[in-house]
Design a protein that fits this description.
6 helices; about 150 residues; mainly alpha
Length: about 150
């Protein structure tokens, strides 16, 4: 009976997940300014309704800005982590995987902001790149410090 080696299968296919996630980021950043504001505004409104129901009043504009920053951080945290996992499955040492995952994610953040420059109602924001870098950096550092166990070749 042939046994399936799941580690080899994972090595073959893990790169698909960060590529798909990059596609999700691209789709989100390809929204017009109006669509993007509508999405984050909808999330903000939902949370503000909940907080109001429990008696907590929050400043809508400030909270909306916070939701947008958290969105950028989270998108790139996930991207950095997915690339780190992909690289570790290929037996790249933890430190090198962290640096590479961060570099790929940062490069994509720059590309993404340049892309947004050409979308109506959007802009290329250095602050967004810094938040994206923070998300990818935290994921990469955590991946390096907690890393996947060494996989057997």
């Amino acid at each position: 009976m042939n046994e399936i080696n799941w580690t080899d299968k994972a090595k073959r296919y893990t790169w698909i997940l960060p590529i798909i996630w990059m596609g999700v980021i691209f789709i989100l950043s390809h929204q017009s300014g109006e669509e993007s504001t509508g999405l984050s505004g909808g999330i903000t409104g939902f949370i503000l309704k909940f907080t109001k129901d429990i008696g907590l009043e929050l400043d809508e504009m400030r909270f909306h800005s916070m939701i947008r920053v958290m969105g950028h951080f989270t998108e790139y945290f996930i991207l950095g982590k997915l690339w780190h996992i992909t690289l570790r499955f290929r037996n790249i040492p933890p430190y090198q995987a962290a640096i590479t995952a961060f570099s790929i994610s940062l490069g994509y953040a720059v590309f993404d902001e340049i892309h947004q420059y050409f979308i109506p109602g959007r802009a290329c924001e250095i602050g967004d790149i810094l938040v994206d870098a923070a998300g990818a950096g935290v994921a990469s550092i955590l991946g390096w410090l907690t890393g996947l166990p060494e996989t057997k070749k």
